[in-house]
Amino acid sequence: MNFTLGLDFGTNSVRAVVVDVSDGREIGTGVCGYASGVQGILLDGKDPHLARQSPMDHLEGLKEAIRGALLQAGEYPDFKAENIGGIGVAATGSSPLPVDARNVPLAFHDGWKDHLDAQCWLWKDHTARVEAEEITRLALEVRPEYVRACGGVYLSEWFWAKIWHCLHVSPEIFHAAFSWVELADWIPSVLAGVEDPLRIQRGVCSAGHKALYSDQWGGLPDGAFLRALDPALEALRDRLYQKAHDASRPAGSLCAEWAETLGLREGISIAIGKSDVHYGAIGCGVKPGRLVKVIGTSSCDCCVLPVGGGFPDIPGICGVVEGAILPGFYGLEAGQSAVGDIFKWWIEKVCGGDDVLYRRISEEAAALEPGESGVVALDWNNGNRNLLADPMLGGLLVGQTLHTTRGEIYRALMEATAFGARMIINRLREHGVVVEELVCAGGIAEKNAVAMSILSDVLGVEIHVPETRQACALGAAISAASAAGFHKDLSAARDAMGSRSVPAFRPDPRRMLAYDRLFTLYRTLHDAFSGTGRETDVSRVMKDLIALRNTG
């Protein structure tokens, strides 16, 4: 019997799964929360946009999660750790970290270990807003093709903006770093024993979606473009990489040191690293017509289109990259900056972490009909990733009265996240992307039936939920099976090992009609407060909410 190991480095924890390569059965799971900061996130009380992680947490969490997964897998008949033939790694992105010339994070050096800017810059760090705006401005002026593939706007969450911001705020860190590596690429390189950043096998998933990489223009942005931003960025370019790869090429093989540490065989294959949600899409069996929505602290929508049908230029969609998800397909990515984060804020800040109170409020929210509260919200509590690509936006609640309850507000927040999802899917369909089936994975899909029922009614589609609770780690394990040669390619591995999904939420025609009316009001607020509809009249929104509340 043969198995692979999938790792998923998330926002608050790392997860490991041991998977049977014949059918994708998960026989062992381990989870380890990060030890540092607030639930694994290093914060700065003076700057709410800052979010970092400790790379030491990543390595310690990796060992603990694998130890737990192997222990559980040991209860499976005939399992032996020596039968694990490959490892795959999924991680948040863009989450780059500065490393020295031996691929050691600056955070491991005594002089930098407590310096926030020497840590891993977590995906949800938005400190680089000004730099992102300047990258967008210059690209639109001299290299429009650079941002054409990412919806026309470069985001503050991404690779170049964060690195440039580091140069501005901590030049000593920037100049001490030999190179910068995405977390999804760094973990495989560590496991493979790579001690030269120039020898790291970089994945096209992170490179294409976050670093303006494309084979069409020779890889990373050219030196002249980077020099126009800052000569130090041009100098850094040669210390990054020349070529990024899809999952048809492995990242390396397990080195002796880490094989001994983990109790695995030396030399087993390590798959190319990818963003967590892209591997999550593979774990959920992504294919043309099937959109996979991974819902966690944020949400990410992934779908694929065959290469050869023309380049899908879709404004406001933050990534169209060949080979990012499956070799031979364009990978499309969009998403919302806050979904689970909004619910987490509600539970911890408003409900004070009181589980009994939260359950009571959830029950009240579940009992409400669409529009009954007379309240509508915008889901921009952490900015807007798509379609606006604007981190300088905030949440909004309209229609609140002296009688509004916490349950009504909570339902309005859940509805807002569903309306944001509808905006994205509408844009995809407007540009010819077929969405016939929706699969939702992640913690919200598993635990929040009210939010998922609302999403089904708002979108007017049946929602499937995969059997796996570890879609991202499973997708990484599937890629590992392909890299190790257990299947002929990644698509074949997906077909054999991808999680089955079952219809879990079906739209109600009556609620769909009510949500169509409420979505119109959301869209009015969306256009007015984003500036996309400068002549939008919001004077009727409150009155229309009252009318909807009174008529049911």
- The dominant shape is globular
- Rg of Cα set: 23 Å
Structural class: alpha/beta
**Helical content, roughly?**
25-40%
Give start-end ranges of low-pLDDT stretches: none
Put simply, the count of helices is: 20
The largest pleated sheet is described as: 7 strands, mixed
Distance between the termini: 58 Å
* Counted beta strands: 23
Overall pLDDT: 94
Strand content: 15-25%
Could you give a short description of this structure?
Helices cover 40% and strands 19% of the residues. The chain is an alpha/beta fold.
Structure description:
The chain is α/β, with parallel strands linked by helices. Helix content is 40%, strand content 19%. The protein contains 20 helices and 23 strands. The strands form six sheets. Strands 1, 2, 3, 6, 12, 13 and 14 form a seven-stranded mixed beta sheet that branches. A seven-stranded mixed beta sheet has the order 17-18-16-15-21-22-23, with helices on both faces. Strands 4-5-8 form a three-stranded antiparallel beta sheet. Helix 2 (129-142) packs across helix 4 (159-169) and helix 17 crosses helix 18. The longest helix is centred in the last third of the chain and has 25 residues, at 406-430. It is globular, with a radius of gyration of 23 Å.
